[in-house]
Specification:
The complex is a heterodimer of chains A (about 130) and B (about 400). By secondary structure, chain A is of the alpha/beta class. Chain A has helices at about 1-10, 30-35, 60-70, 75-85, 100-110; strands spanning about 15-20, 25-30, 50-55, 95, 110-115, 125-130. Chain A has a six-stranded mixed sheet. The longest helix of chain A is centred in the middle third of the chain and has 13 residues, at about 75-85. Chain B has about 400 residues and is mainly β. Chain B has a single domain, classed as Porin. Chain B has helices at about 1-20, 155-160, 195-200, 330-335, and strands spanning about 25-30, 30-45, 60-75, 80-90, 95-110, 115-125, 160-170, 175-185, 205-210, 210-220, 225-240, 250-265, 270-285, 290-305, 310-320, 340-355, 360-370, 385-399. Chain B is globular. The two termini of chain B are about 30 Å apart. Classes of the chains: A alpha/beta (about 130), B mainly beta (about 400). Chains A and B meet through helix 2 and helix 4 of A and strand 2, strand 3, strand 4, strand 5 and strand 7 of B.
């Protein structure tokens, strides 16, 4: 028990990239993942519009996702999204309030992608392997 | 039936906006995904000498921007985008609602790592780094854009124009490239455009010419860690004489060339832009065409002090004629002040993101020269002061 606690403190929970069950992909390259959350790649391989979900800018999980997984900063993503939105270039990601909401929306929304702490994954979403 | 569906969709979008949302209005319809965003900013300005955006010597509240912006993704390859804006900026703008942009975007070709498309309608001019979103304070580097490059006295002309564009986007393993080419007719409805170009107000009017083009390439490395770009254009505007008019024909051609770059680290960003501006005026009343080449550049350093707090320092330099940097030849020829031909602006600013939607900003400018002041607001050029200071405070809300 003590051992588990110690390891949880030493290594913060792993972040998993999740998608709707029907999404036509099992894995994504790291550059492709960056491009999707930077809203540059906007369609899946089958041509369907990708729907991106994120937590709020200040959410600790979002901060970790931006820094550790995408290797950027929340402010940089925010600027990229704002430039898209206010110049009519494209849609911005949908912001959700909690991991529970994230999990529910990814499960319900076709072509959706998001992220969550690994221990919160359930069988209604697909986990994408990042290579 | 499609028409009715469209009407119902439009109505439900309006109903959601009316419900005063805290975040973007975002929802799915049978006809695709729609997002609506909006923003409003009120700025207060005070200067010790010279007027900028209203009677700033007495403190001016005459600078506000309010816009509504919508994007309708009809299919993965087809979208409609538009923005309406009401803007007042002293004598240089009138507070009226205008369409900033409204276009159809058709993505006609796509591969795994690239795509190309066509836009039709009123398009944003691909001019430098900040023009595309110049009215949204949240996306600007400061309350007032660096005026040497983003003159606010001819904002409508600079912002957008009517026509068509081709774009191409390429993804690489560590970044991406965007290229856009526009063939358009410029907008010429700025109150201050004519006096700014011809130094006088004339009975006729200015009309944009269809020979105008713009091009821009931007390379973004690793989600904008590094962003560099090159932009060029040629803008033709003709004078349409009134029925009784001493001027039979006139016009101008403006050829800007811009180079810009930005580096974004966790705590700081460094941004710079340089512009070479080639201007040629012709008029039947002038013995010869008037040609000049101007230079503009700015360098800005941003520092993120704490979450939600950011400070910056910037130097912005404008020269109207590179062969007459201090304006003395101009002063000798016209009797007008030499300091009206340049502006050197040191700015210090602070940004506080109070919440996701609410933003407060303050900045202080110490300026030498009046090169980017409006003649409508400073009607007697001889009464302008060479050294002056400007303070601005703004409050913004967006969703």
């Amino acid at each position: 028990m003590l051992c588990i606690l110690e390891s949880a403190v030493a290594n913060p929970p792993y972040i998993a990239v999740i998608a709707h069950q029907k999404v036509d992909a099992a894995s994504l390259s790291a550059p492709r993942l960056k491009s999707i959350f930077g809203m540059r790649t906007t369609t899946w391989k089958d041509g369907k519009q990708i729907k991106v979900f994120v937590l709020k800018d200040k959410d600790p999980l979002h901060v970790r996702f931006a820094k550790d997984v995408l290797q950027t900063y929340p402010y940089s993503l925010r600027r990229i999204w704002e430039r898209r939105v206010y110049s009519g270039t494209g849609l911005a990601p949908t912001v959700v309030d909690s991991e529970t909401e994230m999990l529910k929306l990814i499960a319900e929304t076709e072509n959706a992608i998001g992220y969550i702490q690994q221990h919160n994954i359930d069988q209604n979403v697909k986990v994408l392997e990042i290579q | 039936m499609k028409g009715l569906q469209t009407a119902i969709t439009a109505f439900s979008v309006l109903a959601q906006i009316a419900a005063a949302p805290a975040m973007a209005v975002n929802f799915d319809t049978d006809l695709g995904n729609i997002q609506v965003h909006g923003f409003v900013t009120q700025t207060v300005l005070h200067s010790d000498d010279n007027n900028f955006f209203g009677n700033s010597e007495d403190t001016s509240f005459e600078f506000y921007e309010a816009g509504l912006n919508g994007l309708w993704q009809l299919s993965p390859n087809l979208k409609l985008a538009g923005q309406i804006l009401a803007r007042d900026a002293g004598a240089t703008d009138d507070g009226k609602v205008r369409v900033d942009y409204a276009f159809l975007d058709y993505n006609f070709w796509r591969s795994d790592s690239a795509h190309a498309g066509l836009k039709l309608g009123r398009l944003l001019n691909p001019y430098g780094m900040y023009n595309d979103t110049r009215d949204v304070v949240h996306t600007r580097p400061s309350i007032l854009l660096p005026q040497s490059i983003y003159f606010d006295v001819n904002r409508n002309l600079a912002l957008s124009s009517d026509g068509a564009s081709l774009y191409y986007q390429q993804e690489f393993s560590d970044g991406g490239l965007n290229f856009e080419l526009l063939s358009v007719k410029p907008r010429t409805r700025d109150p201050d455009l004519e006096p700014a170009i011809f130094f006088t107000d004339n009975p006729g009017g200015l009309e944009g010419d269809r020979s105008t083009w713009f091009a821009r390439a931007i390379y973004s490395y690793d989600l904008d860690r590094v962003r560099v770009g090159l932009a060029a254009g040629s803008i033709d505007v003709n004078y349409e004489p009134a029925e009784v008019d001493p001027i039979e024909s006139a016009g101008f051609n403006f050829k800007p060339l811009l180079i810009f770059g930005q580096y974004n680290a966790e705590k700081w960003s460094l941004t710079g832009e340089f512009a070479n501006r080639r201007l040629e005026l012709f008029a039947s009343v002038l013995p010869a065409n008037v040609k000049s080449v101007g230079h503009s550049y700015f360098l800005q350093y941003d520092y993120r002090l704490a979450p939600a707090w950011e400070a910056f320092i910037r130097y912005d330099d404008l020269v109207w004629d590179k062969n007459d940097r201090n304006g003395e030849q101009f002063a000798a020829a016209t009797g007008l002040p030499a300091h009206s031909r340049y502006a050197k602006d040191w700015t210090l600013g602070l940004r506080w993101d109070v919440s996701d939607n609410f933003l407060l900003r303050a900045e202080f400018h110490k300026v030498k020269g009046t090169g980017w002041l409006s003649s409508l607001e400073n009607s007697n050029p001889l009464a302008t002061q060479k050294d002056w200071r400007l303070f601005a405070l703004s409050a913004s809300y967006r969703f």
